[in-house]
Design goal:
Helix content: 55-70%
CATH architecture: Alpha/alpha barrel
Distance between the termini: 9 Å
Number of strands: 0
Number of helices: 13
Structural class: mainly alpha
Largest sheet: none
CATH class: Mainly Alpha
Order of helices and strands: HHHHHHHHHHHHH
Radius of gyration: 19 Å
Strand content: under 5%
Mean pLDDT: 87
CATH topology: Glycosyltransferase
Shape: globular
CATH superfamily: Voltage-dependent anion channel
Length: 352
Amino acid sequence: MTFHLTNPATPAMEALPPIPASSHGLAHLPVSVFATVMGIGGTALAWQRTAAALDLSPLPGEVLAWTSLTVFAVVGVAYGTKAIRYPVAVRREWRHPVMLAFAATVPVSLLILAAALLSTSRSLSAVLWWAGAAVQLVLTLDVLRVWIADSRFEPGHVHPAWFIPVVGNLVVPLAGTTHAPAEISWFFFAIGLGYWIALLPIVLNRLFVNGPLPPRLAPTLAILVAPPAVAQLAWLRLGGTVTDPAARILLHLATFQALLLLVQAGALRRLPFTLSAWAYTFPLAALAGAFAGASRPGAAGYRTAAVLTLAVVSLLVAALSVRTVVAIHRRELCRREPSSPSPPRAEAGAQP
């Protein structure tokens, strides 16, 4: 995968040797592959919440939860092997101005799994949650430190996936209220909410002023749905109610972001497949769960919205799963892209 930067690399980056051209394809496995776990695990949570709201069988949600854990194990072994065999590739990826935000898919996956497995294996959920919460805190601090200190970052490097480290903090309370004192969940919730609000104008400025996203990052527009939707779910876990002003504001904002994504669906569906297409799944799954949580007597519209959104994200997960397997068979996920001269502005369009 090749990225072009207009600023020279920092001394720390220059000290890293290049990845040999003859290296195995595993060296080019992107960390964003963990987005598959987020998508499947998020859909499991949406099924569980919808089943509870409509008094349906919890079996689909449980099956998806264990499926997402299996996918995490496979992906984790693959990426762990990459880290052992090609540590320089991992260090470059985790310090790249575009790819850095995708590193947060690792702890977020753990936190989503912890929430999805909470009802079926509380002990396993606790292990996953504590690991995910610890890594999430460390990674959030590290990402913010790099954003502050690294002079290579430019407006062209900003993209909606910058919200992923923030969303991770908002996911913590989904299982955290069960596994730890409430203050810990409030701590993470405050971080997520505060930095989401702070990052929102930065990301919107990038989208409004700096031109459209490169095609391979265009699906990350769906991530705009995730922060308010997950924040609403976290608010309810922290003791809020669906009729609270905060819960209503967050749900309606997430709904608007989904509508904004819908009006762009025609252009987005024509994009070629990349792993970034999994960015559609978790935000929509979170929205389906938020709709299900808001359903109550006299609010049948939320129940209908939950079912429709859940149907869409379930079909999307199925289609993307098939397409990802095809991409693995064709060796498209770990393909090294040829180098090319640097363009006049930062190009963020390589495989995320």
